[in-house]
Amino acid sequence: GEDVEQSLFLSVREGDSSVINCTYTDSSSTYLYWYKQEPGAGLQLLTYIFSNMDMKQDQRLTVLLNKKDKHLSLRIADTQTGDSAIYFCAETARSNYQLIWGAGTKLIIKP
Amino acid sequence: EAEVAQSPRYKITEKSQAVAFWCDPISGHATLYWYRQILGQGPELLVQFQDESVVDDSQLPKDRFSAERLKGVDSTLKIQPAELGDSAMYLCASSLGSGGREAFFGQGTRLTVV
Fold first, then answer.
1. For testing contact with chain A, the best of B29, B36, B37, B96 (most A CBs within 10 A)
2. Hey, is B67 helix, strand or coil?
3. Count of CB atoms situated within 10 Å of the CB of B1
4. CB B4 within 8 A of CB B21
5. Do B110 and A48 touch (CB under 8 A)?
6. Residue-wise pLDDT tens digits, A19-74
7. Which residues of chain A make contact with B99, given a CB cutoff of 8 A?
8. B48 in reach of chain A (CB within 8 A)
9. If contacts are CB pairs under 8 Å, which of residues 47-106 in chain A contact chain B?
């Protein structure tokens, strides 16, 4: 079945770039998403990319999609303490249009 | 800015008691989702509504969980009786269509069963 995988943790220094990676299995996904979840809060949609795109940029966020390798990444430039959160990758399953979620990557910011 | 509203934010209940959560989606959003999120994991879909109809409830433990969206707007998720393993964050989300695009989430209800 469909599956989405992410590393559980990423640690970066404040001011550096963070790159959070995700791999997925459903090659027919239409949309891929990045959500942010702060402690005790719901999920905030950060950005999404349509499957016919390679890259999408939105201010400090850059999403790269490699369809051949089924790899999605989220780059956060100039990482700030407010970026500390868990970042979830998700894809839309073509079979039923439901979201398939990764387990989340906890981004840890070091001063 | 339009938001998905959920209440309560926190709920502590004793096992075997009944508990209910409420969700009001963004106005005009036909699709409503209830997710359960266990600490350290991604969300797990419990039920999906399209207007007032259930589209998918294959992961809903129907012996104890029920969900309704009677008028196709707000929704209620009920657990009766609650078990210790039900302790989790319950998230509601809504989207314009059923294609999974841009699902917006509420703040969630943190349930603790003691």
1. B37
2. strand
3. 4
4. no
5. no
6. 999 999 877 777 899 999 998 888 999 999 988 899 999 999 999 999 999 999 99
7. 30-31, 92, 97
8. yes
9. 48, 88, 90, 92-93, 96-99, 101-104
Q: Do B101 and A103 touch (CB under 8 A)?
A: no
Confidence of residue B99 (pLDDT cuts 50, 70, 90): low
pLDDT of residue B72: 87
Q: Residues in chain A, how many? A: 111
Q: Which residues of A touch B45 (CB under 8 A)?
A: 98-99
- Nearest alpha carbon to residue B108 among B36, B44, B41: B36
3-state SS of chain B: helix, strand, coil percent to 5?
5, 50, 50
Q: In DSSP terms, which residues pair with B29 in a beta bridge?
A: none
